[in-house]
UniProtKB/TrEMBL annotation:
Listed name of the protein: Olfactory receptor
InterPro entries (alphabetical): GPCR_Rhodpsn, GPCR_Rhodpsn_7TM, Olfact_rcpt, OR51/52/56-like
Superkingdom in the source lineage: Eukaryota
GO CC annotation terms, alphabetical: plasma membrane
GO biological process: cellular response to lipid
Membrane topology (UniProt): Multi-pass membrane protein
Compartment(s): Cell membrane; Membrane
Domain G-protein coupled receptors family 1 profile per the UniProt entry, residue ranges: 43-294
Keyword Transmembrane helix assigned: yes
Keywords: Cell membrane, G-protein coupled receptor, Membrane, Olfaction, Receptor, Sensory transduction, Transducer, Transmembrane, Transmembrane helix
Species for this entry: Hipposideros armiger
Length: 323
């Protein structure tokens, strides 16, 4: 997708790595990763399918949840296969074009998920602070515009990253420190000036996930202000309970990302397995846990999923899909 015509680089490929020091047990490590990949695919695909099929769920909260599940699916499809390829085949070699393409889609789905989590925070704010005007504020047209804005912002800000990488030469090393291609990891291997890449990469981080995180915090300050104004204790708990799943998504997504970004750019030199572990937490754990959290906490989603598979009667063995 992103062809490279750089003839000044000594290397023509990058080498992604698994977990340093555990090469002898790669096969056994791959078993839990396979299980995580399966849970991710089934869980997120089921959520998208249920919301797509059930018209009663096509309301703002669940439409945003479907967007979150779709971004988790995309992120997983561009991370898990590369890891399993290393574990099973010991094949960690990627061409520059393949690596830059993977990097583009990983960061694109990462930003898409961040923006979706922000949209979900806005949804929770409107639902708690303006419940009587919820349906008039978050109309289908508004949801469509929010989704379009997320896509446009993400693509606009991510497309320059691989284009800027094309001008770099790579002659120091070609071994990446993660199991997939990430922008900060790639530019560290360049033997040419990467100031523009570093500045733009930091701008991307601050203007997308950094800004989203601050706006989410601001949303919850407003939500907390509204909750504290509720007279009854039961009413406060009920309002806060509607935010539990979203707070879990925020914590799962932003905590390892913030720590990893700080370590990459400003932190001291640490053992490679620390970076690898934190990167894996950021890219692998949220897609696995988000569908579990939302299914466990949301009775309506859980009931609709269960209703997808019910038998017509004891004499019939085929599964019927309910619409």
């Amino acid at each position: 997708m992103f062809p490279i015509n750089n003839t000044n680089s000594i290397f023509s490929t990058f080498l992604v790595t698994a977990i340093p020091g555990l090469e002898a047990v790669h096969f056994w490590i791959s078993i839990p990763f396979c299980a995580m990949f399966f849970i991710t695919l089934v869980g997120n695909a089921t959520i998208v399918a249920v919301i797509w099929r059930q018209h009663t769920l096509q309301v703002p909260m669940y439409l945003f949840l479907a967007m979150l599940a779709a971004s988790d699916l995309g992120l997983s499809l561009f991370t898990f296969p590369t890891m399993l390829r290393i574990f099973w085949l010991d094949a960690g070699e990627l061409t520059f074009s393949a690596c830059f393409t993977q990097m583009f889609f990983i960061h694109t789905f990462q930003d898409f998920e961040s923006a979706t989590i922000l949209a979900m925070a806005f949804d929770r704010y409107v639902a708690i602070s303006h419940p009587l005007h919820y349906s008039s504020i978050l109309t289908s047209s508004v949801i469509a515009k929010i989704g379009l804005a997320i896509v446009v912002r993400t693509l606009t800000i991510q497309v320059p990253l691989p284009i800027l990488l094309k001008r770099l030469c790579f002659c120091h090393s070609n071994v990446l420190s993660h199991s997939y291609c990430l922008h900060p990891d790639i530019i560290k291997l360049s033997c040419t000036n990467t100031r523009i890449n570093s500045i733009y990469g930091l701008f991307v981080l601050l203007s997308t996930m950094g800004l989203d995180f601050l706006l989410i915090l601001f949303s919850y300050i407003l939500i907390l202000k509204t909750v504290l104004s509720i007279a009854s204790y039961g009413g406060r708990l009920k309002a806060l309970n509607t935010c539990i799943s979203h707070l879990c998504a925020v914590t799962l997504f932003f905590t390892p990302m913030i720590c990893l970004s700080i370590l990459h750019r400003f932190g001291p030199k640490l053992p490679s397995h620390i970076y690898v572990t934190m990167a894996n937490m950021h890219f692998l754990i949220p897609p696995v846990m988000n569908p579990i959290v939302y299914v466990v906490k949301n009775k309506q989603i859980r009931d609709k999923i269960l209703k997808l598979f019910i038998r017509k009667g004891p004499e019939e063995s085929q599964v019927k899909f309910i619409t």
